[in-house]
Amino acid sequence: MGVVLPPPPLSMLMLVLMLLPVASASEAEHRLFQYLFEDYNEIIRPVANVSHPVIIQFEVSMSQLVKVDEVNQIMETNLWLKQIWNDYKLKWKPSDYQGVEFMRVPAEKIWKPDIVLYNNADGDFQVDDKTKALLKYTGEVTWIPPAIFKSSCKIDVTYFPFDYQNCTMKFGSWSYDKAKIDLVLIGSSMNLKDYWESGEWAIIKAPGYKHEIKYNCCEEIYQDITYSLYIRRLPLFYTINLIIPCLLISFLTVLVFYLPSDCGEKVTLCISVLLSLTVFLLVITETIPSTSLVIPLIGEYLLFTMIFVTLSIVITVFVLNVHYRTPTTHTMPTWVKAVFLNLLPRVMFMTRPTSTEEDAPKTRNFYGAELSNLNCFSRADSKSCKEGYPCQDGTCGYCHHRRVKISNFSANLTRSSSSESVDAVLSLSALSPEIKEAIQSVKYIAENMKAQNVAKEVNMVFIMASLCSDA
Q1: Coil, helix or strand for 14?
Q2: Angstrom distance (rounded) from CA 126 to CA 172
Q3: Which of 172-176, 386-390, 435-439, 445-449 has the highest mean pLDDT?
Q4: Going along 38-187, which residue ranges are E strands?
Q5: Which of 60-64, 297-301, 400-404 has the highest mean pLDDT?
Q6: Which end of the chain offers a freer environment for a tag, N or C, measured as fewer CB atoms within 10 Å?
Q7: How far is CA 264 from CA 252, 267, 275, 316, 325, in A?
C-alpha cells in the first residue's frame, strides 16, 4: 500500500512561478555573454575596416572641485568621463535572448579608448577600469568612469584674494592618432548639472575645444579635447580674516604720532604693529605660490605698511630724543629754532607757549618803584626818630613806617626773580645785618628760580620742536 503525499502549499507554487522568469532571464544573459565574448579580443580596435577610425563621443561632467593648491599650482577635481562608441562585435538580436536589449559587463572585458589627461600633475593618467560598461544591442558602448584628477594649473595671484583663474584640462588618446580615433565633443562646454558647489571657488564657465596637433615625436596628427575652466575665488573668508585686520592694524600706525611722548608707549605700539603685520605677511606667503613672477597687491600693501611702520619707529625715536633733551646736555641750533619754532608751527596752526621774558618790563618797573622808596627810606638815621612823627606804643611813627616799608618790600622781593634788584638793595649800607642776611637768602632763591625758569623755557623749546616733528 503506497504512501500518498499531500499537495504542495499554494505559497510554494507562487514562489516557483515568480522565479521562473528570473531564471530564464539570467539564462538568457548568460548565453548572450558567452556569445559576445566567445571570440572577442579586447586589444583589437573594433572596426570592420582597418582604415576607418573609431568615433568616440566624449564629454566631461564636473562632480566636485575638490581644491586649488596655489602653492604647488595644482587643481584637484572629481570628474565623470562619458565615452560613447560603437563596437560591431557587440551586436545581438534581442528576440534571440528573450528581449534583452542592454547588458552591463566589466570594462576590462571590452576594448576601450586610452584617453588620458595630458596635463596631469600627480596621480594616474588613466581612469580606473573597474567600473562596468553599458552595452546596447545595436553595438553602442557607453562607459562613464569616475575619476579624481590632479591637473597642473598656472595660478596668477596678482589680485589675491579677488582673483580669477583659468585652468585647462587636456584629454586625448595617448596611443591612437587621428586616423585611428576620431574624438567628437558632446556639447560645447563641461557638464555642470551634477556639480557640487565649492565653498572657496565659483565656476564661471567651462567651454570645451577640439584641437589637432602634430607633435615633434611623431608624424601623425593627434586630437585632443581641452576644457578651459574659468573660476573665481570667493573672497569673504579672506576679507574678514585677513584684509580687515590688516587695515585696522595699519590705522594704529597713525595713532602712534597722536600718542603723547610722556606716556612712554610710542615705541612699544610701533613694534607691536610691526610684529602683527609680519605675522599676516607670513600667512599670505604660505597661501600664495612661491614664485618671483608676480607679487600680489596685498603683499605689496603689507610690505609698504611695514616700511611705513619702520620709518615711524625711527621718527618716534628721534622725537623722544628731542623731547627729553635738557640745556645741560644739548644746545639747540639756530636753524632748528627757525624751522621747528617759527616756520612749522605757522604751517600746522600750532601755538607756541608764551615766554616769561615778555613779562620782564613789568617786573622791572615794579622793582624800580620799590627801590626808590627804599633808597629814600635808607637816607634816614636808623637810630633816631624823624621829627614830625608821633610815637605809637613806645615806638615813633617814623620807625613804624620803616617796618611797614621793609615788610612790603621783602614780600615783593621774594616774589621776584631779578638779581639786579637784590644787588641794588645790598648797596644800601643803612640796612641792618639781619636785613642784609635775609636779602642774601632772597637773592639765592631768586637766582635758583631764574635758573629753573631758564631751564624750563629751554625744555619747552625742545618739547615744542618734538611736537612739530611728531606732527
Answers
A1: helix
A2: 11
A3: 172-176
A4: 54-69, 74-86, 102-106, 115-117, 120-122, 132-136, 140-143, 146-152, 164-173, 181-185
A5: 60-64
A6: N
A7: 16, 8, 19, 11, 15
Rounded to an integer, what distance in angstroms lies between the CA atom of residue 224 and that of residue 60? 13
Mean pLDDT of 70-77: 90
| CATH superfamily of domain region 238-324 | Neurotransmitter-gated ion-channel transmembrane domain (1.20.58.390)
The three three-digit cell numbers of residue 347, written as one number:
604751517
Q: How far apart are CA 394 and CA 374, in angstroms?
A: 24
Q: Give, in order, the Cα–Cα distances in Å from 433 to each of 23, 250, 297, 416, 438.
A: 145, 70, 84, 22, 9
Q: What angle do CA 260, 307, 314 make, to 5 degrees?
A: 40
Local structure of 250: helix, strand or coil:
helix
Residue 122 and residue 64: Cα distance in Å, rounded?
A: 18
pLDDT at 290: 72
CATH code of domain 27-234: 2.70.170.10
- Please give the Cα distance from 231 to 151 (Å, whole number): 14
Fill in the DSSP letter of residue 242.
I
pLDDT in tens, 161-211: 899 999 999 999 999 999 999 999 999 999 999 999 998 999 999 999 999
User: Would you say 69 and 75 are in contact if contact means Cβ atoms under 8 Å apart?
Assistant: yes
Residues found in the chain: 471
